[in-house]
Specification:
Blueprint (H helix, E strand, L loop, with lengths): L5 E3 L5 H5 L6 E4 L2 E9 L6 E9 L2 E3 L5 H9 L5 H4 L15 H19 L11 E4 L2 E4 L5 E2 L1
Parallel strand pairs: 1-5
Antiparallel strand pairs: 2-3, 3-4, 6-7, 7-8
Helix pairs in contact: 2-4
Length: about 140
């Protein structure tokens, strides 16, 4: 069993930019650099401290969801017919783009599955949200589970 950890950066929203937010994250696949503004002990001199994080892949804000699907998910689909299960897991804070990314990836995966599936194939799919200690079924009007 293999585990691949990827990150996708969303762009700053117009509202964030208009409120003076700055983009403090740089992407250079597979590295993510967080730039933290600091002030030296003299209380005057400003500088930026960089923190590097390395992932299997890192997608910048200008890369679309199709790229994430093509490079991270599409090649897993044939494994369904030999190994039976694949899992794609999205994690992040509210508003970070999980639903946006997963909805598009799911649509592409379903389309491709029907192209490569043997004629007698049967499928089952789950799409859950875990939030605040509660689990909801996103394919059944957010029914609580």
């Amino acid at each position: 069993m293999a585990l691949c950890v990827c990150i996708r950066k969303r762009p700053l929203f117009h509202k964030e930019v208009s409120q003076g937010e700055i983009d403090a994250v740089s992407m250079l696949n597979p590295k993510v650099v967080v730039h933290e503004p600091k002030i030296k002990v003299d209380g005057i001199t400003k500088y930026v401290q960089n923190f590097d994080f390395k992932f299997d892949n890192a997608y910048a804000e200008h890369e679309d969801t199709h790229a994430v699907y093509e490079y991270q998910i599409k090649d897993l689909l044939p494994k369904l017919f030999s190994q039976g299960v694949i899992t794609v897991f999205a994690y992040g804070q509210t508003g970070s783009g999980k639903t946006f990314t997963m909805a598009s990836a799911t649509q592409s995966a379903c389309s491709d599955l029907f192209k490569i599936a043997p004629k007698d194939s049967k499928f089952a799919m789950s799409f859950f949200e875990i939030y605040g200690g509660k689990v909801s079924d996103l394919l059944n009007k957010k029914a609580k589970l």
